Amino acid sequence: MDLYRKTIWQLRELLDRGEIKPEEVLDSVLRRIEEVNGKINGYITVLEDYAKNQIEKGLPEGPLSGVPIAVKDNICIKDQLTTCASKILYNFRPPYNADVTERLLNAGAVICGKTNLDEFAMGSSTENSYFGPTRNPWNVECAPGGSSGGSAAVVSADACIAALGSDTGGSIRQPASFCGMVGMKPTYGAVSRYGLVAFASSLDQIGPMTKDVRDCAMLLNVISGYDRRDSTSLKFDRPDYTKALTGEIKGIRVGIPSEYFGEGLNQEVADAVKKGIEYLSSSGAEIIDISLPHTDYAVSCYYILATAEASSNLARYDGVKYGYRTEKSSNLIDMYFKTRGEGFGAEVKRRIMLGTYALSSGYYDAYYAKAQKVRTLIKEDFDKAFEKVDVIVTPTSPTTAFKIGEKADDPLQMYLSDIFTISVNLGGLPAISIPCGFDSKSLPIGFQIISKHFDESTLLRCAYFLEEKFAVKDKKPPL
User: Quick check: is 440 catalytic?
Assistant: First the structure.
């Protein structure tokens, strides 16, 4: 039995019946990692000893007990390397656990590794990593998406059972789309950011990346909830998300935004998404055409706000207390310059410069202040839409996975690959990407569902229904 191919809920059933042991599951996953990680480079660090020690000490009884879970390498695990895929943090070991790490451990999960990402989660392809690019399991010449490309690739390749990613402008959903699996960005404030290394604090959100929708609901049950250590964490009545998986969608009002089906959308992607809309319509959902008129401004608005926040957040890396420090410097200021110059990659430097420029006194009103106003308009677009509809459905990405290196020299083209996901982050909304088919090159296509704040239950209800209709979740990449 290839235990590494199982889902969370399948393993939990086998473990509860005593048919398998946690050691067997971990061994199966570790063997799979050894088999495929050289081909996809999904892990930065495999935590074999850490995982085995967890089992030896005895796992808590919980909803994830005995299940190997991978964690994106910008989420802190106490005393374990947490690099953010950057030279500047190549040797950093945090002295504490992230809130989501604590929740995983308390639920009995076995944390088996730290996954690759674009440096400091800045990118859409996982090519911007100090540890080399991650490759897409469906075609190793293609990018897995980003920035959570490592998490997407290892889940898709069955090199873990599920993973956590972070989503600032689509960094869970776009790689989920490219790698043919499920990725959810929860409502901003529903999952604590304590212990997530910050990129853009008003946009970042941790979320589940799984093989199917039921696993996504189970993992969301564990990681969501209030945390006083995160000032943006919100108190809310958290339901059992697995109870939303009824398969019944009759009467749900589904919004179709015209702005997401125009120029630049690949025809095969459009056809696959429209098929999903037909499934909803024929099963009793009400289809309503809507408009989100400020969508065109989302990418430019995002790249001002996100870079401005990154410029502030990344100012802390100076080589003094932790991380990389240059070996040759003549004085303190020179040490700062050289450490940051040598420690950060090109894309991170580009974004720091963009953000610093947007925040500078002469340009603050023209860029940052204006972008904040546009963000409010985008949020109001969604508020108006959700007066008429319960969910909004769109493609996750305008294309399927592109070749590694194809967009590396054109940052603007790379930035536009997140055009359908960015608005959700600007509005703080929950959204999920599920696989809905394949293009003519056998690359996965993603279907995005967006719902109101804290209405992940409706999101999961629709996703579960469509997952059954699309019937592609059991297809595996040719690794």
Answer: no
